[in-house]
Write a structure and sequence with these properties.
By secondary structure, this protein is α+β, with helices and mostly antiparallel strands. The chain has 11 helices and 13 strands.
């Protein structure tokens, strides 16, 4: 690990510094921890895995059932051990929500002096002698999602990026040497807590160059120094499922505009057609949701990126999703969406200044934007 940043230091640029657990930063602590508050309610959308995501989710954590207390061997997949009765639970200071003490012990976090519920039964903030940490519980979904393998690779990448001085959260290993603890159909991940604010309402076009640099930096780092060892994700099945769900919504919800069946069929076909040529481009682990709601800000500068889904996919798709989040403008009267051409040019120019697009990526840029718009 690299040396911790100076106490109270605010990242001078978009690259910033990764806050190390245990740093004293009274100025930052005086801010609201906005990246754990509920964001403005939005129209519910489908999660990239194809499941519904709650509107008020924190760190993009979907609802799950409470984890049962299992032995450490059972949770880590080492041996065929029957579940033990749940032992001591650690109560939170703010609510009577609890974390399984076995999980805390696995990560060396037993004896925490304070536990706060960030999202009921899904995320907690722990104050420990080793620093401040976030314990997050996420669903595994199905084996084809490769979510455990993705999050293991992502955790290794997070720590490499932190060591490189980039604004990400540091991941913590458990006593088995793994970053992810699987409990039946759930996984547990522990990362450092970073003070600051976040929310979709904090988005500002002036921040686009900083966001573009962060994205370019971690794409370039993977090209030069890191491999997740995973083949590109097949998005066609889950996107088809999502679009079919949208088709059903036409009869279940009152919509301003109702697309016909032909339009839905064309979107599905176009999405499938674009996947193969895009998969020939430079690829790695991408965020897919680098909106203002997934960036922790301090004094207007990015302090950490959160909710890293870590899909192995072409880097150009990350660019496309950022373009949707940061350059699309919605007319509140007509509900028409248009692209802010100046903002898009700023995004692409800022990105290329730190990671120039290859000739193949430039040729497929429009395809990537279309594919991301279909989602």
């Amino acid at each position: 690990m690299g040396p911790p940043p100076e106490a109270g230091r605010t990242p001078p640029s978009a690259q910033g510094q990764c806050k190390q657990p245990g740093d004293a930063d009274p100025a930052a602590r005086s801010l609201r921890h906005g990246h754990h508050r509920n964001l403005p309610r939005q129209r519910q959308r489908r999660h990239p895995e194809g499941r519904e995501r709650p509107r008020d989710s924190c760190h993009g954590l979907p609802s799950t059932e409470r984890t049962r207390g299992l032995s450490a061997d059972h949770r880590s997949g080492c041996g065929n051990v029957e579940p033990e009765p749940r032992r001591q639970l650690y109560p939170s200071e703010r609510r009577r929500e609890m974390i399984d003490a076995d999980i805390l012990a696995d990560y060396g976090l037993d004896g925490a002096s304070d536990v706060q519920v960030l999202k009921a039964d899904r995320a907690w903030r722990l104050t420990h002698s080793t620093g401040e940490w976030v314990v997050a519980r996420r669903p595994v979904y199905d084996p084809e999602s490769r979510r455990v393998a993705r999050f293991e690779a992502a955790s290794r990448l997070l720590n490499k990026l932190c060591d490189d001085g980039q604004p990400w959260m540091r991941a913590k290993r458990n006593r088995h040497g793994q970053y992810v603890t699987q409990v039946e159909n759930e996984l547990i991940q522990v990362t450092s807590f970073v003070d600051g604010e976040n929310g979709l309402d904090l988005a500002d076009p002036a921040q686009i160059p900083a966001v573009a640099r962060i994205m370019a930096d971690y794409h370039r780092y993977q090209e030069i120094s890191f491999s997740g060892g995973l083949e590109n994700h097949d998005f066609v099945p889950m996107t088809t499922e999502g679009l079919e769900g949208r088709r059903q919504e036409r009869t279940e919800f009152e919509l301003d505009r109702i697309p016909d069946d032909d339009a839905m069929d064309r979107a599905i076909a176009e999405f499938a057609r674009l996947q193969e040529p895009l998969n020939t481009l430079h690829s790695g682990l991408i965020h897919m949701d680098l909106s203002a709601g997934n960036i922790v800000w301090r004094n207007g500068a990015p302090a950490a990126i959160i909710d890293f889904e870590a899909f192995p996919a072409p880097f150009l798709l990350d660019v496309g999703f950022v373009a949707l989040y940061w350059t699309m403008r919605l007319d509140p009267d007509t509900h028409d969406s248009t692209v802010d051409q100046e903002a898009l040019e700023t995004l692409l120019t800022s990105y290329a200044a730190h990671r120039p697009l290859s000739s193949a990526e430039r040729a497929h840029l429009k395809d990537a934007l279309i594919r991301c718009a279909i989602r």
